[in-house]
Write a structure and sequence with these properties.
By secondary structure, the chain is α+β, with helices and mostly antiparallel strands. It folds into 2 domains: about 190 residues, no CATH class; about 450 residues, no CATH class. It is built from 21 helices and 7 strands. It has a 5-stranded mixed beta sheet, with no helix packed on it. A hairpin with a 2-residue loop joins strand 1 and strand 2. Helix 7 packs antiparallel against helix 9 and helix 12 packs antiparallel against helix 13. It is globular. The chain starts with a strand and ends with a helix. The N terminus is likely disordered.
């Protein structure tokens, strides 16, 4: 926002001084520290002509002052001593330091011609510096810092001068505070290097050409990557890495790697850090370099670390989800102003690169189309016959979608019960069946939805998301029932946790394989055929609902598998990275922007809500049920021979004996974590936070709508008064 300043102009020429006072509108982003020499015609002049400089005064009150000084520039040589002398005189007069500045070329100290002159200048500089330090100490610290800041010296010299002035009277704390300020600056810079800078250029390009709806998908991929990275980091540092340094108690016979393990998760990966059964139920021991009978224990218990890291990783993920949901709710309800305000105030004048300018123009054009399309959709109102017909068509489409979903889910259940449990070697049958259903049914949903003809594209997107959500939730419910029951024990699995981990790994990998096949063989092949007949308008539009629900489905599997396969979040990270680049290439090469662009201002909120409540809460409930009630395997894993995964009393006693300072963790575990009421309290508090934020945002939204209505009423009142004044004026002249 521009600010008004009073400027004083002094014109010094031929002994005549003219002072002109004027108002100046300044933009805080503009650079005013610039010399502009003027000639007699108002252009740039050479030496001997007046030159002008605008400098920012150090503020002495709430309003910043600016002084415009115009002086005749002449080629005289100025040393550092002269500069210090000038500012010494100004400091003695208690004037602001930035009143008169020299040209940058004259600020630099010139090399003198004779050695005697050099010695004289050095002595003058030292004397002037001492006097300047003395005068700076005599004023207040605020004025002194302001005066030092205005000196035409380098940052290093200003820093040394400030230490020389204030180090003696404040002691070492000033020096420490100065270094702490640099530390704070470094930390603030490190905070800016965040995941938000990842794929920044790609996201700008996608948003500029395809709109905010498609952009929300790629932003969601980046958010999931952050969640998986934090979970993988916690599990890797505190569970996987300690176990890797220790090794299993009895090294199993490892099978040779043939490559099929990447798809099935069996064979070479079975007895590895990938799965639950590899981890021991003992504490870490010091490495034995020579032949020794017994190694000394370090007191780091693998069962306690495994137990706590799973809980902490889920807790951190829950906190991040609640924070993201509250933040996205606030952003979705913010007012962006009217169409006219956005149109005339959307350009960024800092953009100078040609490619950035073109990208910004495309972004503004796309967002204008979205807003205009939204306004047009709101104004379209059909008759009652059209609405009745649309309701009938929508009802038929919903019947087709729900019936097809029910038939496919029933088929998956029958396959699990009668085929999958009897054919042990057919480990890829169930994952590929589920992936085929997830691939075929969304195409059926999209084909039948064309008959609905919703006026608003956003309504069409939300309905599609709901249908895909019902399909994914039904499939995950059947799979969860299969994994949580005792069906896996009929297969003779000694370590059922490893079996479930392998199942989840296969579902994650097959989902990635089928997505890549659909993208490479489906979308690229269709695009090649369309380009061959020169019908680029027949390219498909990016299906946001389908791709986003695929991401939520895969993320649900990754969260569910972290208990049985600690490295599954790392596999999910690789999957998300590959999906991002494949989907980006497919979007730019095989898809076209929608003919009905729509503004997805609340799409990120919907995605985060679906990720939080149906996905994360369901997974957290299943994991909590498994850890509290299901009996672990007797021969494998860190919780072998225990009634439940929470029965760790012996490990807590060993921890207190080894590290007495950590005894308070046993109290926390016994009185808080071991009781389900504690989790209910935490869940209630998090839901309360979400509810409060939603109510606050709703109140702000109502207030904004009331203020907009008030502005419209005031505009109508102004028009009414102007019309009355015109009428009175005409009557007066008549």
């Amino acid at each position: 926002m521009a600010a008004r300043y009073d400027l004083s102009i002094e014109v010094v020429s031929s002994g005549n001084v003219e002072t002109v006072e004027m108002d100046y509108l300044s933009d805080p982003d503009s650079d005013l520290d610039e010399w502009v020499p003027l000639d007699t015609h108002g252009g740039r002049g050479d030496s001997g002509q007046p030159c002008i400089q605008i400098m920012d005064e150090c503020p002495t009150n709430e309003a910043d002052g600016f002084t415009l000084t115009v002086m005749r520039s002449h080629p005289i040589r100025r040393s550092r001593a002269a500069v210090l002398s000038q500012y010494l005189d100004s400091s003695q007069c208690r004037r602001p330091m930035s009143t008169i500045f020299s040209h940058r070329s004259t600020i630099r100290s010139r090399r003198p011609s004779h050695p005697a002159e050099t010695h004289q200048e050095l002595s003058d500089e030292a004397r002037q510096r001492k006097e300047l330090v003395k005068n700076l100490k005599s004023v207040s610290k605020r004025d002194g810092v302001c005066m030092i800041r205005g000196l035409p010296l380098s940052v290093d010299e200003k820093r040394h001068l400030r230490r020389e002035v204030y180090l003696d009277e404040e002691g070492p704390s000033s020096y420490i505070a100065l270094h702490c300020s640099w530390l704070r600056f470094a930390l603030s810079g490190a905070r800016r290097v965040h995941v938000s800078t990842l794929w920044r250029g790609t996201l700008k390009r996608v948003g500029a050409h395809f709109g905010t709806g498609v952009l929300s998908y790629f932003l969601f991929v980046r958010t999931l990557l952050l969640y998986d990275s934090i979970m993988a980091l916690l599990v890797g540092l505190f569970v996987v890495l300690p176990q890797a340094t220790q090794g299993p108690e009895l090294p199993p016979a490892r099978q040779s790697f043939i490559g099929l393990e990447l798809l099935t998760g069996e064979g070479y990966f079975t007895n590895s850090l990938m799965y639950y059964g590899y981890y021991t139920n003992t504490s870490l021991r010091k490495a034995c370099l020579f032949h020794c009978q017994e190694a000394e224990e370090l007191g780091y218990s693998i069962p306690l670390a495994y137990h706590f890291i799973i809980i902490i990783s889920f807790f951190f993920t829950c906190v991040m989800l609640v924070y993201s949901l509250s933040k996205s709710l606030g952003k979705s309800l913010q007012s962006e102003g009217g169409l006219t305000v956005w149109f005339f105030g959307s350009w960024d004048f800092k953009v100078t690169k040609k490619s950035s300018i073109l990208l910004k123009q495309a972004s503004i054009l796309t967002q204008l189309k979205e807003r205009i399309s939204e306004r047009m959709a709101q104004n379209k109102r059909g008759g009652w016959m059209v609405r009745v017909w649309q309701l009938v068509v929508c009802g038929l489409v919903w019947i087709i979608c729900l019936s097809s979903t029910g038939i496919c889910v029933l088929g998956i259940y029958l396959y699990v019960k009668y085929i999958h449990l009897k054919k042990v070697k057919n480990v890829l049958g169930l994952p590929f069946l589920v992936s085929i259903v997830n691939l075929v049914l969304p195409g059926l949903f999209r084909a039948t939805s064309r008959a609905e003809r919703y006026q608003s594209p956003s309504t069409h997107a939300y309905v599609a998301i709901l249908r895909h959500l019902l399909l994914k939730s039904s499939i995950l419910s059947v799979l969860s029932f299969h994994w949580m029951t005792d069906d896996h024990r009929r297969l003779g699995q000694e370590c059922w946790e490893t079996y479930i981990g392998q199942e989840l790994y296969r579902h994650v990998v097959t989902d990635l394989v089928m997505t890549l096949l659909h993208t490479l063989c489906g979308e690229f092949l269709w695009s090649w055929c369309v380009d061959g007949v020169r019908r680029r308008d027949q390219r498909p539009v990016f299906d946001i609902a389908r791709n986003v629900l695929d991401l939520i489905y895969g993320q649900t599997l990754a969260w569910a598998g972290v208990l049985f396969s600690p490295l599954l979040p790392a596999v999910q990270i690789l999957k998300l990275l590959l999906l991002f680049y494949i989907k980006k290439a497919s979007l730019l090469l095989n898809h076209r922007p929608s003919h009905q662009p729509w503004r997805a201002n609340r799409m990120s909120t919907v995605f985060t809500t679906l990720l939080c409540f149906p996905a994360f809460t369901g997974v957290a409930g299943c994991v909590a049920y498994t850890m509290w009630t299901v009996k672990p395997s007797l021969t494998c894993g860190p919780f072998r021979s225990l009634p439940t995964m929470f029965s760790l009393e012996r490990e807590w006693e060993e921890l207190k004996d080894a590290h007495y300072s950590l005894a308070w963790l046993s109290v926390v575990y016994t009185h808080l974590l071991k009781k389900p009421i504690f989790l209910y309290i935490i869940a209630t508090l998090l839901l309360l936070v979400i509810y409060i934020n939603k109510q606050r945002n709703d109140g702000q939204k109502r207030l904004i709508s009331l203020l907009k209505k008030q502005i419209r009423n005031e505009g109508e009142d102004t028009k009414f008064l102007i019309s009355k004044l015109k009428t009175l004026h005409q009557e007066h002249h008549e």
